[in-house]
Structure formats: C-alpha cells, structure tokens
Design brief:
Blueprint: H1 3-12, H2 14-45, H3 48-59, H4 65-73, H5 77-93, H6 104-132, H7 138-188, H8 204-217, H9 221-240, H10 242-249, H11 255-300, H12 306-334, H13 340-368, H14 371-390, H15 394-407
Helix pairs in contact: 1-11, 2-3, 2-6, 2-7, 3-6, 4-6, 4-8, 4-13, 5-6, 5-7, 6-13, 7-11, 7-12, 8-13, 9-11, 9-12, 9-13, 9-14, 11-12, 11-14, 12-13
C-alpha cells in the first residue's frame, strides 16, 4: 500500500475528507489571528510584554484540558463542533470594537475564551474522527492533518499580515470568523451516525478523573504521552535558542525565518509518510525513531555551519511531528469512544504544557549559559527518552490495547 494510495483513500472518505477540510479552513484563520493579535497589541501600546500576553491568553485554557475535554464527551460531537464553530465566529466579530488601548481587555478576553473553546473543539474533533474513520487510516488522517496545519503556518501569517496592513486587526478577526463559519458548514454536511451519550453517572470532577485514570493505567499510552511531554519540553528550550543559533551562524535575526520554512517543509513531508510508517512500526516505535532523529538534530544545531543548520531544521521538522502524530493516533486507537474527548484533551495538556515551560526556561537560560552546551544536553535528554520508549515491553501494551478495543463503543 503506497503512501500516495493511502492518502487518496483518506481524501476519498467522505467524513475524513470533510473533517480535513474543516481543519484547513479554521486553521487558516487561527494562524492568521495568532500573528496579527500580537502585532495589533504592539501597535496599540508599543509594549512587547503586552503583545506576548496574547499568546499566553490563547494557551492558558489548555491547562484545564482534562476538564474541558469532558464537555466533548457529554454531547454528540458533530452538533457540538457546529455550535462551537458558530460561537467562535460570532465571538471574533466582537473584536471589531477594539480600536484603542482602552479596549485591550476585550481582546484578551476573546483570546482566552477562544483558547478554551478551541480545546473543546479539538477534543470533539479527535473523537468524531476516531469514531467515523477506519482505524487503520487514523495515522494517515493525522499525518495529513499535520501537513495541512504546517501548510497553514506557512501561508496564513503572510495573508494575515497583508490583511492587517490593509484593514487592521478587525479585518483579520473577520477573516477568522469567516473561516469558522465555513468550518461549521462543512461539519453540517457530514453524515455520521452518533449515539446519544449516556447520562453522566458521576459529577464533573469524577468524570474528568476517569479520563486521567484511563490514560495513566494504559501501559502503552502512559509512556508514549510522557515521552511526548519530555520531547516538547526540550523542543521549547531548543526553540528559545533559535536566535542565538542564528547569531552564531553570522546572520541577522531574519534568517530564523528561513530555518522555520525548512522545518515546515520537513513537517509537511512526515505528515504524508506517517500513515504507512505507523502501520509498519506502531505508535511506540514511530515516536521513538522520531525522537531519536530530533535528538541528533538538536545536538547538531550547536555546529555553526549553514548546511548543518538547514539539515537540522529539516530533521526537527520530521522528528518532532512524528512524536505528536504518534501520541494522537495512539490515544484514538486505544481509548473507548465515550472517554475519547477527555483523554485526548488530557494528553494534549500533558504534551503541550511542557513546551511553554520550555520556552520560558530557555529564554532565561540563554542569558546564563552558552547555547551550544544547552543544545548538546538537550540532545542527550531526547536520546535517553527515545531509548526508554524503545525499551518498553510491547507485550503489556498490546494486552492493554486489546482490552481497550473490546470496551470501545461508537463515539
């Protein structure tokens, strides 16, 4: 089964193709807003710190991922995705009222709610896809989703910057609102059969804990998610060292954009290859090999040589997404449908929160320690993480997977 054939098979699947289309259109608007919001605040206030708060406002709600994911398990996923998309479209239009520093509170409030709704949205979408797409194609779908997201990161900021220059922040907000409206229409067009979720037998806190318990008790998911968290922590520290690496190469800070573009190309490539690789290797080994590649790339970033920097950027673009795709696919394949929303969101919190911590730590450490020593140390930590993941006994993981599959029910 060739990579091309499986990719075509995913796109020909009515549900998978339309879910992917919704990801593309809503992701385009989100990527545009991500850049424009910081520029908007910078223009209004002249403050770098206040501009950085935009990212914090959008990210902070993911800390409540286990609780927010529970909401995705309390409702049928397709109607919930439609409602959330329409809600975010209306919410974004309120940003048209922001035209001075005195309205910044509204921008931050919208970004915070946007982040919370986005966490529920991602959990519900993951659960919907896992219940509607053939399980053998989940790796292909998640890979194509990664490819689409990386493509949006390359194109959307340019569109957002152009729109911001012409029409200001409200213009970008209207673009993002339109993208969510389009996503809602795509979700409305889906034809999926969903059972109404059973009435909750436990309170919100107990229901959230049930998802955490499932994740921790699964002998295959626990080490996979923990490895993903360590990987993202190291990636955050490494990312904070990017401008030091560029300076060491003898280039201006703008050269970082070239390295990010090369990294994006690597991410697009691994997204196309991930489905066949996951079927051949399994999530555990696929993640471990990706982390191993990332370990070598991060350590070799310490070499002040342009061809090496380009090669490392491409390798980071391949290795890091491989780990993320493996985690998401593993969660979808090993989690019963009724728990999938909260388990997906919990895994997302455990994997992505360390990235922000790493960015903050890297910003401090780069002023105290040489970046070369840090990069080599990060490479060692990542190498150990990959070795531990490879050393996990597959037998216990397979037994847990079999139990999860027998307990699973349609989402």
């Amino acid at each position: 089964m060739t990579t091309r054939w499986t990719a075509v098979r995913v796109l020909r699947d009515r549900t998978a193709g339309r879910c992917l289309a919704a990801v593309v259109v809503s992701g385009f608007g989100t990527s545009a807003l991500w850049l424009a919001s910081g520029v908007w605040v910078k223009d209004l206030t002249g403050s770098d710190g206040l501009a950085a708060l935009c990212m914090l406002a959008m990210w902070a709600p993911t800390l409540a991922g286990p609780f927010l994911g529970t909401l995705a398990d309390r409702h049928r996923r397709r109607p919930l995705l439609v409602a959330l998309s329409l809600f975010m479209a209306v919410l974004l239009l309120t940003l048209c009222a922001v035209d001075g520093p005195e309205e910044l509170w509204l921008l931050y409030a919208v970004l915070f709610v946007y982040g919370a709704a986005g966490t529920v949205h991602d959990a519900a979408e993951s659960a919907l896809v896992a219940g509607a797409v053939d399980r053998s194609l989940l790796g292909d779908f998640n890979g194509l989703r990664m490819t689409a997201n990386e493509g949006m990161k390359l194109l959307a900021p340019l569109a957002g910057a152009g729109l911001y220059t012409a029409y200001g922040g409200p213009g970008v907000a209207v673009l993002d609102a339109a993208s969510f409206l389009a996503a809602a229409l795509v979700y409305l067009s889906l034809r999926v059969r969903e059972e109404r979720p059973a009435p909750a037998r436990e309170g919100g806190r107990s229901a959230t804990a049930e998802g955490v318990r499932h994740l921790w008790a699964d002998a295959g998911l626990r080490p996979l998610v923990l490895a993903g968290g360590v990987t993202m922590l190291c990636a955050g520290v490494s990312g904070a060292l990017t401008y030091a690496v560029v300076e060491d190469l003898g280039h201006s800070p703008a050269y970082a954009g070239v390295l990010y573009a090369v990294q994006g190309a690597g991410s697009v490539t691994v997204g196309l290859l991930s489905g066949p690789a996951l079927r051949r290797l399994g999530a555990r080994r696929f993640a471990a090999y990706g982390i191993s590649l990332l370990a070598a790339a991060v350590a070799l970033r310490a070499v002040p040589y342009d061809p090496a920097a380009w090669a490392c950027a491409a390798a980071v673009g391949v290795g890091l997404p491989a780990a993320l795709i493996a985690v998401l696919t593993g969660v979808q394949q090993r989690t019963p449908g009724p728990l999938l929303g909260r388990v997906t969101a919990t895994a997302g919190t455990l994997v992505h929160t360390p990235n922000v911590i790493g960015l903050a730590a890297g910003a401090v450490l780069v002023e105290l320690l040489g970046h070369r020593a840090q990069l080599v140390a990060l490479g060692v930590v990542l190498g150990v993480t990959a070795a531990v993941l490879l050393g996990q006994s597959p037998a216990s993981a397979d037994r847990t997977a079999a139990r999860s599959a027998s307990d699973a029910s349609p989402a």
